[in-house]
Amino acid sequence: MPLPHVLLSAAVSLDGYLDDTGPERLLLSGPADFDRVDEVRASVDAILVGAGTVRADNPRLLVNSAERRAARVAEGRAEYPLKVTVSGSGELDPAACFWHTGGEKVLLTTDGGARRARALGIGADVVSLGPQLDWRRALEYLHDRRGVRRLMVEGGGTVHTQLLQQELADELQLVLAPLLVGDPAAPRLFGPGAYQGGRLRLVESRRIEDVVLNRYLPTAPGTGERVAAADRHWLALACELAELCPPSDTAFSVGAVVVAADGSELARGYSREGGDPVVHAEEAALAKVDPADRRLAGATVYSSLEPCARRASRPAPCARLILDAGVRRVVTAWREPDTFVPGADGTGVLTAAGATVVVLAEYEARAKAPNRHLEG
Ligand SMILES: NC(=O)C1=CN([C@@H]2O[C@H](COP(=O)(O)OP(=O)(O)OC[C@H]3O[C@@H](n4cnc5c(N)ncnc54)[C@H](OP(=O)(O)O)[C@@H]3O)[C@@H](O)[C@H]2O)C=CC1
Ligand SMILES: Nc1c(N[C@@H]2O[C@H](COP(=O)(O)O)[C@@H](O)[C@H]2O)[nH]c(=O)[nH]c1=O
């Protein structure tokens, strides 16, 4: 199921706190950074905070710049992004600024929380997601029912922790402020628990007055059938690589990436790479990895097209090469059509040998784009 692009945004002290324990919200960002946050808000379809943040900060979560709001309207978008909060209890103050400023608002909650919120007279769409609040369902709801493609999450720590631990975050924008809180009772950005192994990828580091903005991408693949945000990132890269293929009327243009369990890229390739007229993307990528590399056993192969099951031009099809390399997880965008090999079933070859194949159909159009001339 397609999900929104989830951007986690937070500012932290040098000792990792989101706030102090005083009655006022701690300003970690400076004016220029708050203006950057405003710009990010203006770029998204929805802004989400947890009920703890609504209670602690009484935020308005607006796009403050009139120019940015006007630009949204000129683009045919709502003046303000949808405001979303999540609460299990439904125990929220109906007089909070959240409900009385900006545009549309929605409360995502549980059956019990919905009863309580309605009894309190909360001024928003109150949406129950069942007896418990499941984050994947919440994101699916926002994507499918509210048209949210980009979601900015502005905390607090409980919400950020769950989204990162459940591998639903596509991006982290973290501002480090030069002050120390030093109070163990203050809220931290990330709590204890199991996170992806390995390192996140630092994609940008920018000084903004006296704070530093760091942007990170989680890169560790999911496991088995469980899809992580990073799976979408890597499959999108495979689709980009497919665009590099020398065009052909007799073969597909495909891109592939091999990624270790800790999120490090082992190799990438594309069809007909390096002047070889018949080399396939997965074959080109795997040829660049040392077969003795132990990381292959936990790796995922991302391929814009399902790995091939039969070949005339080579002794082994890509599904077999993947299995022989020891890889047991494949993520692809597009099942092979009958264009060149009727009834090709690379997925069948892989799954019969115990591998998992995940098809992310929302990338099918991108995978097909460099193959348009082959469609009958
Ligand atoms: N520096 C910064 O950038 C930011 C700082 N902050 C700070 O963070 C603090 C608030 O953080 P925190 O207390 O962690 O609160 P959160 O904003 O993360 O909200 C937590 C609440 O959200 C609801 N919730 C979250 N996940 C679930 C779930 N899976 N199922 C059901 N309900 C869920 C619960 O509401 P309920 O209790 O109603 O059931 C829970 O108590 C404040 O001090 C604020 O100032 C916040 C944002 C940004
Ligand atoms: N304190 C803090 C942030 N806090 C976030 O800003 C929200 C309030 O925004 P507003 O309604 O516009 O006043 C608050 O609820 C929390 O999500 N954000 C940051 O980038 N830097 C900061 O230092």
UniProtKB/TrEMBL annotation:
Pfam families referenced in this protein's UniProt entry, alphabetically: dCMP_cyt_deam_1, RibD_C
Record bears the keyword Nucleotidyltransferase: no
Pathway per the UniProt entry: Cofactor biosynthesis; riboflavin biosynthesis; 5-amino-6-(D-ribitylamino)uracil from GTP: step 2/4
Residue intervals of the CMP/dCMP-type deaminase domain: 229-343
Keywords: NADP, Oxidoreductase
Keyword Oxidoreductase in record: yes
Enzyme class: hydrolase
PANTHER family: 2,5-DIAMINO-6-RIBOSYLAMINO-4(3H)-PYRIMIDINONE 5'-PHOSPHATE REDUCTASE, DIHYDROFOLATE REDUCTASE FAMILY PROTEIN (AFU_ORTHOLOGUE AFUA_8G06820)
UniProt similarity note: In the C-terminal section; belongs to the HTP reductase family. In the N-terminal section; belongs to the cytidine and deoxycytidylate deaminase family.
Role this protein plays: Converts 2,5-diamino-6-(ribosylamino)-4(3h)-pyrimidinone 5'-phosphate into 5-amino-6-(ribosylamino)-2,4(1h,3h)-pyrimidinedione 5'-phosphate.
Name of the featured protein: Riboflavin biosynthesis protein RibD
Organismal lineage: Bacteria, Bacillati, Actinomycetota, Actinomycetes, Kitasatosporales
